[in-house]
């Protein structure tokens, strides 16, 4: 394999690229809100015990970076990704501006399992609990099996966690949501909408908040992160040309969740104030990335096969790099993003760059129990189909308008 240009790569700084070409912000969107609330954040975090679930992912680890600036007493991190936890610890201990609590432990375990309960009872109770463990990709809803795993993780385990917290509720509980929960067109968005209603059913028992937000630029597993992987392996870049998305930086994602977790009132759903003119297409970012990462201009191919062949023939002196841009045609793809619906009452005055949904639906806990029993009974049948699950979700989530094309992202590069 011929290696791609190294000169440009050696000078490439991902955070600078995100600030210049993706978010187009040199300062964090939430810098003012963080500064205005600095004393309150110090008061509510300093000396407190913190449990972060799903902390090895991009958003969870960014939340940890954000919260450590306010000096909690202890930090426990749960994630099934053992390698991710290892890298998290190396990253934290290599950062010059963070003070790691003496009481810092990571556990590569499932937060819905028996071992987690043992850890929770031994190390708890906790003052702040933040849950980032989620199936977050539309890619993860290709059939009834993947959908069952998604609903188990996003809804059923979230409820199990709250039941565990009830005897000694934390001062702050946060669970991450998604913009796709507003007027959902895919199962992932519908599952997150039900997750919101599930956790908010407990909002009278403890302070509970959540947040819907934009794509996190170059987050683990994202299409943009895949650009780096493709370049390292000398493979073509592939992206939809018609899908427009809002973006925040990894740092901003952690700060948004921190503000929502610690400063929100119980039942609040937070979202970033972003203007539609700030949305970007993945294809446009790909063009900028090729130029800034390694000095290439893009060579647009007419098919995946043509792009693969062109990548295989790249030489050390090549000045162009193959890309395949396409019109999106996979199930559940929404052509634009929205953070709230017309029926939701929003507060845009309290924070400079954050809006808050104030009238989110709160079901009774008994209703949530019945909802989950309904879902579990549905999955007991070995021949349950994706269409049947989608139909049931349509009854459970009013307004769920699933877009089914018969194609999934696993069929694309």
Strand and helix map with partners:
Elements: H1 7-11, H2 14-22, H3 31-36, H4 38-45, E1 49-53, H5 58-68, E2 74-78, H6 82-94, E3 103-107, H7 114-123, E4 128-131, H8 144-165, E5 172-176, H9 187-200, E6 208-211, E7 215-216, H10 223-232, E8 237-240, E9 244-245, E10 247-248, H11 250-263, E11 269-272, E12 280-281, H12 282-294, E13 297-300, H13 304-312, E14 320-326, E15 346-347, E16 354-357, H14 365-380, H15 386-396
Parallel strand pairs: 1-2, 1-4, 2-3, 4-5, 5-6, 6-11, 7-10, 8-14, 13-14
Antiparallel strand pairs: 9-12, 11-16, 15-16
Helix pairs in contact: 5-11, 8-9
Supply the key terms.
413 residues, alpha/beta, 9-stranded mixed beta sheet, 3-stranded parallel beta sheet, 15% strand, globular
Structure, explained:
The chain is α/β, with parallel strands linked by helices and 413 residues long. It is built from 15 helices and 16 strands. It has helices at 7-11, 14-22, 31-36, 38-45, 58-68, 82-94, 114-123, 144-165, 187-200, 223-232, 250-263, 282-294, 304-312, 365-380, 386-396, and strands spanning 49-53, 74-78, 103-107, 128-131, 172-176, 208-211, 215-216, 237-240, 244-245, 247-248, 269-272, 280-281, 297-300, 320-326, 346-347, 354-357. The strands form four sheets. Strands 3-2-1-4-5-6-11-16-15 form a nine-stranded mixed sheet, with helices on both faces. Helix 5 (58-68) packs across helix 11 and helix 8 packs parallel to helix 9 (187-200). It is globular.
């Amino acid at each position: 394999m011929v290696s791609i240009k190294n000169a440009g790569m050696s000078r490439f700084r991902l955070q600078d690229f995100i600030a210049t070409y993706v978010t187009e912000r040199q300062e964090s969107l939430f810098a003012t809100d963080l500064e205005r609330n600095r004393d309150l954040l110090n008061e509510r975090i300093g000396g407190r015990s913190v449990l972060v679930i799903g902390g090895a992912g991009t958003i969870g680890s960014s939340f940890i970076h954000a919260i450590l600036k306010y000096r909690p007493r202890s930090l426990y991190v749960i994630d099934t990704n053992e390698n991710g936890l290892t890298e998290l610890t190396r990253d934290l201990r290599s950062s010059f501006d963070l003070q790691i609590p003496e009481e810092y432990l990571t556990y590569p375990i499932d937060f819905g399992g028996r071992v987690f309960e043992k850890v929770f009872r031994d190390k708890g109770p906790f003052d702040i609990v933040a849950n980032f463990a989620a199936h977050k990709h539309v890619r993860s809803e290709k059939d009834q099996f993947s959908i069952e795993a998604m609903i188990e993780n996003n809804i059923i385990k979230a409820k199990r966690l709250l039941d565990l917290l009830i005897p000694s509720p934390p001062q702050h509980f946060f669970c991450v949501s998604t913009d796709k929960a507003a007027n959902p067109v895919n199962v992932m968005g519908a599952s997150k909408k039900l997750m919101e209603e599930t956790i908010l059913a407990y909002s009278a028992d403890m302070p509970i908040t959540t947040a819907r937000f934009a794509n996190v630029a170059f987050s683990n597993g994202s299409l943009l992160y895949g650009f780096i992987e493709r370049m390292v392996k000398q493979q073509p870049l592939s992206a939809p040309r018609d899908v427009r998305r809002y973006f925040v930086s990894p740092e901003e994602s952690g700060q948004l969740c921190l503000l929502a977790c610690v400063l929100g009132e119980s039942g609040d759903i937070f979202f970033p104030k972003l203007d539609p003119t700030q949305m970007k297409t993945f294809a446009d970012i790909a063009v900028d990335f090729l130029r800034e990462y390694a000095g290439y201009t893009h060579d647009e191919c007419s098919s995946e096969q043509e792009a693969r062949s062109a990548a295989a023939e790249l030489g050390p002196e090549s000045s162009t790099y193959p890309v395949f841009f396409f019109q999106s045609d996979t199930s559940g793809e929404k052509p634009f993003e929205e953070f709230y619906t017309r029926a939701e009452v929003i507060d845009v005055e309290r924070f400079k760059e954050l809006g808050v949904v104030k009238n989110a639906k709160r079901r009774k806990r008994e209703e949530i129990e019945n909802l989950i029993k309904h879902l579990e009974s549905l999955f007991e049948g070995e021949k349950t189909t994706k269409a049947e699950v989608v139909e049931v979700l349509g009854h459970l989530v009013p307004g769920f308008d699933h877009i089914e094309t018969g194609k999934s992202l696993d069929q694309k590069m």
